[in-house]
Write a structure and sequence with these properties.
The structure is a single chain. This protein is α/β, with parallel strands linked by helices. The chain has four domains: 166 residues, Molybdenum Cofactor Biosythetic Enzyme, Chain A, CATH 3.40.980.10; 56 residues, Molybdopterin biosynthesis moea protein, domain 2, CATH 3.90.105.10; 88 residues, Molybdopterin biosynthesis moeA protein, domain 3 (Beta Complex); 79 residues, Beta-clip. Helix content is 17%, strand content 31%. It contains seven helices and 28 strands. The strands form eight sheets. Strands 1-18-20-21-17-13-16 form a seven-stranded mixed sheet, with helices on both faces. A five-stranded mixed sheet has the order 8-5-7-6-9, with no helix packed on it. The protein has a five-stranded mixed β-barrel with strand order 22-25-24-26-28. α1 packs across α6 and α4 crosses α5. It is elongated. It starts with a strand and ends in a 13-residue tail after the last strand. The structure holds adenosine monophosphate (AMP) and magnesium ion.
C-alpha cells in the first residue's frame, strides 16, 4: 500500500480502479441528468412534411408577383387546411387555401401569406403583399431526417434532449446505472442529530452532507448508521454495506488508538491501495477495493470539512465516471484573491472562498476560519481555491484557480438583457 500521495496521484489511482456502470432501461421522462449509452439515430422525419409556420393563406407565389398594399390582389379561397388536416386536392393557379399553423402545405403551394397581410376573407381573400420564396413555410425534415444521428452516446440528457427523444418516439431509453453508495459514520462520541447531547458528544453531520453530495449528482445513498469505536462494531456495519457499489465511511482512519477502519477494511477483504494524501484539509484518506466484487471503498477523514472536501476531490469524480460522465470534474475559473494566503509547503490546500462577479472578473475571498471542523466555512463559500503543494504564500491580488462548488453565484437578480 502506498502512503502520502499527491492529490493527482490519488485521483489517478482511484479513477483507474473505477468502472463505468452498465446500462439500464428507463422511461425517457425520468432520464433528465442521465448519460445515454447508445447514440440515438432518427427513425422519423421532423416535421414529416412541409407545413405552415403561420395562420394565413397558402398560395402559389407566381400568382402574386407585384402585389402590394397599393396593388392588392383578390383570390378565391378554395378550401381550408386545419392543423392536423390535409389538403383535399392540389392548389391550382390563381387559388388560395385557408391554412393554420402546423398544417401541411397543399401540393402546388409554395408560400404562406400570414393573415395579418390580408382581409381574412372566407370565400375570397384580398392579399396585400408579394411573398418571398417559401415565406412562412417550415420545410419537411428541417429539424431532422430519417437516419440523422440526433444524440451522441455519452451525452448528458437535458430537457431538450428529452423533447427530441419524444419527437422520434423514444419513450424508453438506455442510460448508465446510478451507483449505490453505502455511507457509514464512526466514533464513540457521535450521536444522531435528534438525540440530546452532552459536552462529551458530537452530533453526527457527515452522513447528511455525504448523502446530499451523492444525491446532488444522481448517486443513490443508503445510510448504515454510526459504528462505535470497536473493530467489531465497525465490521458489522461495514458488512451491511457490501452490496453497494461504493462504501464511504467517515472518521476513524487516522493513526489514533481508536482508529480501526483500516484494519477492519483489510479484514473484510478490502485491498487498500493507498493511505494519506498531501492535501489540506483531508490528509488521512484511505482507498481500497473489495475483491472479487470490485466495490470501491473510501475511508474519509472525520472532520466535517475534510469529509466534504475529500468527497468532492475523490468520491464525486469516481461516482460521475461510474454514471458514464466524461466531464467528471467541477468547473474551474481563474479568480483574483482578495487577501494573502500563507501556508507550509508540502500539501495542496483547498481554501474555501466566497466568489463575486466584479467588473474586473471574479473575486475570491477566503471565508475566514479554515479549520477542518468549521463546516459553516463551506456554506459561506461557493468554491475551493487551489493553492499548490509547494507554494508557501499567495499574495493578495494574485490569480488563483478556483473549483466552483456552487454555480449559483452566476445566478443574478437582474435580467441579463
Ligand atoms: P476521527 O477521524 O475519528 O479522528 O474524527 C475527526 C473529527 O471529526 C472528530 O472531532 C470527530 O468528532 C469528528 N467527526 C467524526 N465523524 C463525524 C460525523 N459523522 N459528523 C461530525 N463530525 C464527525
Ligand atoms: Mg474518531
Amino acid at each position: 500500500m502506498r502512503e502520502g500521495l499527491t492529490v493527482e496521484e490519488a485521483q489517478d489511482l482511484i479513477l483507474e480502479a473505477t468502472p463505468i456502470l452498465g446500462a439500464e432501461t428507463i422511461s425517457a421522462s425520468d432520464a433528465a441528468g442521465r448519460v445515454l449509452v447508445d447514440a440515438i439515430v432518427s427513425t422519423r422525419r421532423h416535421p414529416p412534411a412541409d407545413c405552415s409556420a403561420m395562420d394565413g393563406y397558402a398560395i402559389r407565389r407566381e400568382d402574386l408577383v407585384g402585389t402590394s398594399i397599393a396593388k392588392p390582389k383578390t383570390m378565391p379561397v378554395v378550401y381550408e387546411v386545419p392543423a392536423g388536416g390535409r389538403a383535399s386536392r392540389p392548389l391550382e393557379t390563381g387559388e388560395a387555401a385557408r391554412i393554420f399553423t402546423g398544417a401541411p402545405l397543399p401540393p402546388g403551394a409554395d408560400a404562406i401569406i400570414k393573415q395579418e397581410d390580408t382581409d381574412m376573407g372566407d370565400e375570397r381573400v384580398e392579399i396585400r403583399v408579394e411573398p418571398e420564396p417559401r415565406e412562412h413555410v417550415r420545410d419537411g425534415g428541417e429539424d431532422f431526417e430519417i437516419g440523422d444521428r440526433l444524440i451522441e452516446a455519452g451525452s448528458v440528457l437535458g430537457a431538450s434532449h428529452l423533447g427530441v427523444l419524444a419527437s422520434v418516439g423514444r419513450t424508453i431509453v438506455s442510460v448508465h446505472q446510478r451507483p449505490r453508495v453505502a455511507i457509514l459514520s464512526g466514533g464513540d462520541e457521535l450521536v444522531e442529530p435528534d438525540r440530546p447531547t452532552d459536552a462529551g458528544q458530537i452530533v453526527s453531520s457527515n452522513s447528511y452532507t455525504l448523502a446530499a453530495q451523492c444525491r446532488e449528482i444522481g448517486a443513490l445513498p443508503t445510510y448504515l448508521g454510526i459504528a462505535g469505536d470497536t473493530p467489531e462494531a465497525i465490521e458489522i456495519r461495514m458488512r451491511a454495506g457490501l452490496g453497494a457499489d461504493v462504501l464511504v465511511s467517515s472518521a476513524g482512519v487516522s493513526v489514533g488508538d481508536h482508529d480501526h477502519v483500516r484494519d477492519v477494511l483489510e479484514k473484510i477483504g478490502c485491498q487498500l491501495r493507498f493511505w494519506g494524501v498531501l492535501m489540506k484539509p483531508g490528509y488521512p484518506l484511505a482507498f481500497g477495493i473489495i475483491e472479487p466484487t470490485g466495490q470501491l471503498v473510501f475511508g474519509l477523514p472525520g472532520n466535517p470539512v475534510s469529509t466534504a472536501v475529500t468527497f468532492e476531490e475523490f468520491v464525486r469524480p469516481a461516482l460521475r465516471k461510474m454514471m458514464g460522465h466524461r466531464d467528471i470534474h467541477r468547473p474551474v475559473v481563474q479568480a483574483t484573491l482578495s487577501d494573502a494566503i500563507r501556508k507550509r509547503a508540502g500539501r495542496l490546500h483547498f481554501v474555501r472562498v466566497r466568489l463575486e462577479m466584479t467588473s474586473r472578473g471574479i473575486l475570491a475571498t477566503p471565508t475566514g476560519n479554515q479549520s477542518s471542523g468549521v463546516l459553516t466555512s463551506m456554506i459561506r463559500g461557493q468554491g475551493l481555491a487551489v493553492i499548490p503543494l509547494e507554494a508557501e504564500a499567495v499574495e493578495a491580488g494574485a490569480t488563483v484557480d478556483v473549483q466552483i462548488l456552487d454555480l449559483g453565484f452566476f445566478d443574478r437578480r437582474e435580467r441579463g438583457f
